[in-house]
Specification:
The protein is of the alpha/beta class and 218 residues long. It is built from eleven helices and six strands. The chain has two domains: 128 residues, Rossmann fold, CATH 3.40.50; 74 residues, Winged helix-like DNA-binding domain superfamily/Winged helix DNA-binding domain (Arc Repressor Mutant, subunit A, Orthogonal Bundle), CATH 1.10.10. 28% of the residues are buried.
Length: 218
Amino acid sequence: MINLIITDDHKIVRDGLKALLQDHGAVRVVGEAASGSELLDILPGVEADIVLMDLSMPGMDGFDTATQIFNRYPELKVVVLSMLSHEKYVQRMMELGASGYILKNAGKDELHCALQLIAHGCRYISPEVTLELLRKIKQLPIELPSSNGNEEEHRELSKRELEVLSLIGEGFTNAEIADKLFTSKRTVETHRQNLLDKTKARNTAALIKYALQRGLIS
């Protein structure tokens, strides 16, 4: 059974979500909140597995709320349900540690499936968002360093940097990469910056494109 808290400043949205989920035997709504601060107030008294919340809320927005949750309840999974599909919102929330990003135009089946996957430790991003991110990555102009061969192009990347690059390509956050490699988050951040510097990539999306083009990740 997945214990879920719904957080959205519109009651009609909360009621609609409860109606969608009430027939699903594996999901139980154990609480609801109209704002980030209200959510933080009720969390100590509720046993929850997942928080399903909007980004745009009065007072404390979704980003600040998520940061507070991860600091206080690191085992609690946060899933965004929003109309905002721009890559900057998705990337920022996933880097904070969110387990999912679902658009509000998702159907009941997608919502149920996403919650099940997330409850079992997977991460989920709405296909519409994923396809748009991939489309933009393909269109990114990127200045690539000249070289005489594929191996020479990335010969300056250390074994550890290649490991970090592979995990970045799989969508893991800095904190998750640090756990997997048994190192600190600050060290991972340093490796990430070194990768950007060495490949001349402007951002993470361009770095992933660079790695894909050279077969460094699949």
